[in-house]
Amino acid sequence: MSLEPITPDHALDLYLTDKANELAEASLRGHQYRLGHFVRWCNDIAAIDNLNTMTGRKLHEYRLWRREDGDLNKVSEKTQMDTLRVFIRWLESIDGVEQDLSEKVLSPSVTPDENTRHEMIDSDRATQVLAHLEKYEYANLPHIAIALMWHTMMRIGGVHALDVDDYHPDDQYLEVRHRPDTGTPIKNKGDGERLVAVSDQVAELLDDWLTQKRPDVTDEYDRTPLLATRQGRANKTTLRAYVYRWTRPCVTDNPCPHDRNPDDCDGMHRDFAYRCPSSVSPHAIRRGSITHNLNSDVPAQAVSDRANVSQRVIDQHYDRRTERDKMEQRRAYLDNL
């Protein structure tokens, strides 16, 4: 087999172009981010300008470098190396590297428990955040976004995808739809489409947002986004920033649990709120809401349908109840028989 010379940058560009129709937008961005570190290592550390020369030993050197450079835990390292293996296998198909080189991409083994992320916001803290927003930011966009994430258990992509017409105020429900051709794909695509009921309180909040606060704008596809800024549809980066910003303990008048001086804490800056160790991501809101509903005796199937996630995935990745919590809930059912 005769290999054809290819630079790391050109290889990544070709790979992303090839995968654009195969991977969801979020997955494609993930591949671009993870493989970007590999290209950086090739260019700046290993001085590799032709991937034809890549070997198993060099791949292992990259693994060790990336582990140290990114301060990766085992799960993150596995994710990065598994993506690299897919990339190397693709390079084999275009004669960019030696055949079977992908078999030499080593990746750590992780247990199901290690592969489960435990970050979540508990119900007391979520209630405190929402109470603070209701008092000081009522029916403003951060309040709307975080309230929807908590009360509906939606992923950030589902909240981002909502249009004004997807809210049905008379019947108090939201319609989650997959519209990739107009910029709002959702997780699980068509299988993620569903109707999500909202409470009287959330419906009143949405009504006030629409009548008093929402900017009268459309997005680039002439759609009317429910979560809107003056520039159009609020992007997911903005929504994510709201969650990090408003889940910092100091913002809701709590003492800093990390004994940081506010004058020196980089997490105090609104653009770097994610650097606060106690701030959480939107997925932590979703995980906390799912756990809260399970703890509140909402049937598991109802939680599964509302959150658009299988029972198996709930058990492994979302349900943060302790075994004792589960036992006491079972006891309550048995006592009522």
Automatic annotation (TrEMBL):
This is Tyrosine-type recombinase/integrase. Residues 116-334 form the Tyr recombinase domain. One of its GO terms (molecular function) is DNA binding. One of its GO terms (biological process) is DNA integration. InterPro entries: DNA_brk_join_enz, Integrase-like_cat_sf, Integrase_catalytic, Integrase_recombinase_N, Tyrosine_recombinase_XerCD. It holds the Pfam family Phage_integrase. CDD domains: DNA_BRE_C. Keywords: DNA integration, DNA recombination, DNA-binding. PANTHER family: INTEGRASE_RECOMBINASE PROTEIN MJ0367-RELATED, PHAGE INTEGRASE-RELATED. The keyword Metal-binding does not apply.
